[in-house]
Amino acid sequence: MAEKNQRANGYTRKDEESTTMHSDELKRKKRIKLAIYIAIFAVFQVIVITVFGLVVMRAKSPKLRLSNDIEFQNLNIVNSGSSSPSFDMNFSAQVRVKNSNFGPYKFDNTTAVFTYGGATVGQVIIPKGKAGLKSTKKINVIVSLSSSQLPNTADLGTELASGTLTLSSTAKMTGKVELMLIMKKKKSANMNCTITIDVNQKKLRSLECK
């Protein structure tokens, strides 16, 4: 009888040891799984933060351009066939500030300068404003230009005789890109446009901006 009890107790201890070992093995597997999940989550977080930093938090320079919808209100060509050619004009134009950032771009007052042959023939103020995130701000301006300040009009006479007038427009806009409501980065936008006018038809022939 005592021998039977000893055998029974032996079986019980073995069952208990087996159960304990099985329980420890399950716990070990759970810890391994948990460690794997934590590692995957950490890698995922690193990837998200990296992409966020490179794409979202990276401030790009906005683009400043003149649009093609220039409308002439007044275009006077004087003495185009003589030795003293000149021009005076007024036209409406649309300036576009394209912001491709994930935050608004607030810009200051900007002066756009119009030149002929490197000499200034007029300028216009682009008022300060804000271009929203991933959007384009459109600003209408009235431009007045005159050749009265040109030091030399010989080239002007030749060009007007051909029926065209080529002008340049440049500007540098300064401002700040606001990211996630906490970061502000200074960014500037440059404009460099070439405007070709058909003086006979009194309309825009071409407009190229870089």
From TrEMBL:
Residues 1-24 are annotated as: Disordered. Residues 95-194 form the Late embryogenesis abundant protein LEA-2 subgroup domain. It holds the Pfam family LEA_2. The keyword Ligase does not apply. Keywords: Membrane, Transmembrane, Transmembrane helix. InterPro entries: Lea14-like_2, LEA_2. The chain crosses the membrane at residues 34-57. This is Late embryogenesis abundant protein. It comes from Parasponia andersonii. The lineage of its organism: Eukaryota, Viridiplantae, Streptophyta, Embryophyta, Tracheophyta.
